[in-house]
Write a structure and sequence with these properties.
By secondary structure, this protein is an alpha/beta fold. The protein folds into 4 domains: 23-271, Glycosidases (TIM Barrel), CATH 3.20.20; 297-379; 398-619, Spore Coat Polysaccharide Biosynthesis Protein SpsA, Chain A, CATH 3.90.550; 670-833, no CATH class. The protein is 51% helix and 11% strand.
Length: 878
């Protein structure tokens, strides 16, 4: 908390600026209030104008400059007189002749009526815009001078006066606009530069009085070259300028009295933020003493500390098993997330948002909160995996178990259109199991080609009576339906059900090392990780192999600590009597394995995760297969969440840790769905910026921070954790991160399909399988490639429209580039998947269990003498 306060104070420490103790000679005055706009013919009332003029006089302003003499602005001189203010009255001229005539007539009328008008401005930047020629402007000047007898001038930027010296002959004084921000001058050089331009004009016209018709600096604006805008820089400019102008006796009008949101349409952010007062008529800074950029920062810091107080306390009380550095890291991350949240919540109060920006803020705030939650979820996994002192629920492979701890196991293998030779390898490995009593049921469901399933049946017959084969020509329920059939056919004396996939080659000690954990009645599931074979020498398969391994060596280890592992459909063992009690496998979800595990947790049972590889399967051959597999997992996750939301949120046997993991474990997939939404929204927003910049602002950087944070975590987390816990090299870690990122679009599609579509998800089968490698790779990532091109086109369009010296444009372009990286990853991984392997696969060496911290007991030996003690340690952590 102290660190939070210090950081907020450091980022918001008061900045020095020259003091100004005198009065302000003059300010440019446009009295439009919030929501008013001359383009929409919404004008201020006389009462509002009067209130503004009273405020200016109270603040020591001596004179105001007006820009128009119609649409209610003609009332300003009389109202200003009542407050003792002098007026330099203006007429707005452009290419509309009839309107110009009305402006000139009202200007002349007011000049004749009101003695507090001491000079006149005929036109404002008319020559700069090209609305009139110098000769046309001269005619208006002569007419007004003749009719009023008052000093007249035209207001133009300094360089226009130098470009059109003949204009000086038509005026009684020269009013120069000197706005260094628009000239891309750095803020610390702006005051000196402004007086340099003033002196250039004065030297060019020594017989004319020269004044600053407009001079100032905006408080909020897009970057213009080296020009940056802030409240502090505005205060420094204005206060320094006032001191020098007073020393030199120079006349001026500060640009301007009040912020004018309506100007953003024509001049961008800067146009709306030149005021000494904001649109609510609050002063932006004092004229003396230090200046603070964000006056509300202490409230933001307090809210950030308050939001973080309970989560940090809860974390420190329940995660004492972490080393100090882990506790400090996650506590700091919690505080940082709450600071970002507080910053976002205060944006409408600290930033003058347009109505569109306010709408976008409200729309994006829930998404920002979701992304911040993803940061915390990833950060917790990061902390636990790196800095846990000792895993409290650690289950090593059992050695030398007593015979009574080796009950009969029924192994179920569901197949459908599988290559016979691959299935034979799986069956041969099962036949070689070193276990006293087991059976294998092979259920072929809905395979129509006799040449596919008959060889498997024949092979089962050669393996002996342990193996039974069933062919179901037409059977509902897909894999779950086949496994439910197997439950009916299971031997009555079998106590444990085992399930493996058709491509898995198991180790002989698989059952002997895991089944004894069922000696405890509370254990419902014993699970071992999946591992892979025949990936060596193939870059694509190597990448996805390590990406898979990350889940089993990181996520599952973390989830096991709170008895919340995901049951996956291979290398899993389930207590047989519980299968009957919960009515078997569910056919309403395509992830029946994970759903069953959740149901068993809801009944109050436990799972054991023995983190050692007892078998190896095959990874997908193509990027399309990789995508289809992940789409099925993500779609199934949404099905499960929809089917079990009452149990996850309401009354059930789930512990708090189980609820956390089943909700947070799939939450990052919803972040991928948000990524897709942000990408599509970014495309439309970029189109608006390019085609209608007056109506579209660049999103505030604060909106983009969580997106950037999630992306960085996606990159950094696997690079660090894979090296530390998965035991692969840097390049393998990088490849795994790239492979995982390449599935962002696929996962997003699955989430949206799961939310809005019932039944199985739709996955387009890629075309072009017989084409050249590049074409195949492009087709497999066709949707991602299109999104990539659209995002890159948006980057080019924004860059072309705003230029490369526009800070907000550069930030937005960078964010679009970051948004495009997952789509680029998909294309790259798809192309890599088409490359030929460099070498033939090599045999896989079993990996030892990942401990992360040494267990209280070093071995899981179970025999008649020590079995009770050995099993007793399974209660640790509950």
């Amino acid at each position: 908390m102290l660190g939070n306060s210090i950081l907020w104070a450091l980022f918001n420490r008061p900045q020095s600026a020259p003091d100004w103790t005198g009065n302000i000679k003059g300010v440019s005055f446009s009295p439009y209030q919030k929501g008013q706009d001359p383009h929409a013919k919404k004008y201020p009332t006389p009462q509002e104008i009067d209130s503004d003029l009273r405020l200016l006089r109270e603040q020591g302003v001596g004179s105001v400059r007006t820009y128009s003499s119609i649409d209610g602005m003609e009332t300003i001189p009389e109202l200003a007189r009542d407050h003792g203010l002098r007026v330099t009255a203006g007429a707005w001229l452009d290419g509309r002749i009839e309107r110009n005539e009305a402006e000139i007539k009202n200007l002349i009328r007011n000049a004749r009526r009101h003695g507090n008008i001491d000079r006149l401005m005929v036109g404002n930047e008319v020559l700069l815009r090209g609305d009139l020629t110098p000769a046309q402007l001269a005619q208006y000047l002569r007419r007004v001078r003749y009719a009023t007898g008052l000093p007249v001038s035209a207001a133009e930027p300094w360089h226009i006066w130098l470009k059109h010296p003949q204009l000086a002959r038509e005026v009684d004084f020269i009013a120069v606009h000197v706005l260094p921000y628009w000239e891309k001058i750095p803020a610390d050089q702006a005051v000196a530069w402004a007086f340099e331009q003033y002196d250039r004009v004065r030297q060019a016209f020594p017989d004319k009085k020269v004044m600053f018709g407009e001079v100032g600096w905006p408080s909020v604006a897009d970057r213009q070259g080296e020009s940056t805008a802030s409240r502090v820089e505005q205060a420094r400019f204005v206060r320094a300028f006032l001191n020098i102008a007073a020393e030199r006796g120079i006349d001026y009008f500060i640009m301007e009295a009040f912020d004018q949101p309506w100007k953003q349409r024509d001049e961008g952010l800067a146009g709306a933020h030149w005021g000494l007062f904001d649109v609510e008529r609050n002063p932006k800074f004092a004229m003396q003493g230090p200046v603070v950029e964000n006056p509300l920062w202490s409230w933001e810091a307090g809210l950030a500390a308050l939001l973080a107080l309970a989560p940090i306390a809860l974390f420190l009380l329940n995660w004492q098993n972490l080393r100090l550095r882990g506790q400090l890291f996650f506590a700091a991350l919690l505080q940082a997330v709450m600071s970002i949240l507080a910053w976002n919540l205060f944006l409408p109060a600290t930033v003058d948002l347009t109505p569109i920006a306010t709408f976008v803020w409200g729309l994006l705030l829930p998404a920002q909160i979701a992304l911040l939650l993803v940061l915390l979820i990833n950060g917790l996994e990061f902390s636990e995996m790196l800095w846990t002192r000792q895993w409290r629920r650690y289950f090593p492979p059992v050695r030398d178990a007593a015979p009574e701890h080796l009950p009969k196991v029924s192994i179920h293998l569901a197949i459908h259109n599988e290559p016979p030779e691959m299935v034979k390898q799986t069956l041969n490995a099962l036949a070689a199991l070193d276990y006293p009593d087991y059976e294998v049921l092979v259920i072929d469901n809905n395979t129509k080609d006799d040449q596919v399933w008959l060889p498997v049946k024949a092979h089962c017959e050669t393996l002996g009576p342990r193996f039974r084969f069933y062919h179901l020509p037409s059977w509902p329920g897909y894999k779950a339906g086949a496994l439910n059939f197997a439950l009916v056919e299971t031997a009555p004396d079998a106590r444990v059900i085992g399930v493996i996939d058709s491509d898995y080659v198991v180790r002989p000690d698989w059952l002997r090392a895991t089944v004894p954990y069922f000696v405890r009645d509370k254990v419902a599931v014993v699970q071992a990780p999946q591992d892979n074979r025949e990936w060596q020498g193939d870059l694509f398969k190597t990448m996805i192999n390590w990406e898979y391994n990350g889940f089993f060596q990181l996520g599952m280890v973390q989830r096991n600590e709170r008895n919340a592992i995901i049951q996956h459909g291979t290398m899993t063992l389930v207590r047989r009597d519980l299968m009957d009690r919960v009515n078997g496998w569910s056919t309403w979800t395509i992830c029946e394995d994970a759903e069953l595990g959740l149901r068993l947790f809801e009944q109050g049972y436990e799972a054991v995760y023995v983190n050692e590889d007892f078998g190896h399967g095959l990874v997908p051959e193509t990027f399309a297969g990789y995508k289809i597999q992940r789409l099925r997992w993500a779609y199934g996750a949404v099905q499960i969440l929809k089917g079990h939301w009452r149990q996850l949120w309401g009354d059930s046997g789930l512990t708090l840790g189980q609820r956390f993991h089943f909700l947070s474990g799939w939450f990052p997939w919803f972040a991928d769905a948000v990524h897709m939404l942000f990408s599509i929204a970014g495309l439309f927003w970029s189109l608006g910026l390019i085609l209608a910049p007056a109506h579209f602002d660049f999103p505030l950087t604060a909106f983009l921070i969580p997106t950037l944070g999630v992306f960085l975590f996606k990159v950094v987390q696997p690079l660090v954790l894979y090296r530390a816990k998965v035991k692969c090299g840097f390049l393998e870690s990088l490849g795994a991160a790239l492979a995982g990122m390449s599935l962002t679009h696929t996962i997003a599609r699955a989430i949206y399909q799961g939310l809005f579509i019932k039944g199985k998800p739709f996955m387009r089968t890629p075309k072009g399988e017989n084409k050249a490698a590049f074409t195949r790779g492009l087709y497999q990532a066709w949707e991602e490639s299109q999104m990539l091109l659209l995002l890159w086109a948006a980057i080019i369009g924004v860059g072309y429209r705003f230029g490369l010296d526009h800070q907000e444009a550069l930030v937005w372009m960078a964010m679009l580039g970051i948004q495009s990286i997952p789509y680029l990853a998909a294309l790259l991984v798809s192309l890599i998947s088409t490359l030929p392997p460099k070498s033939a696969p090599v045999p896989v060496q079993p990996r030892a269990a990942l401990r992360g911290g040494e267990p209280a007991m070093g071995v899981g030996k179970l025999d008649g003498e020590t079995g009770a003690l050995g099993m007793a340690r399974l209660d640790m952590g509950h």
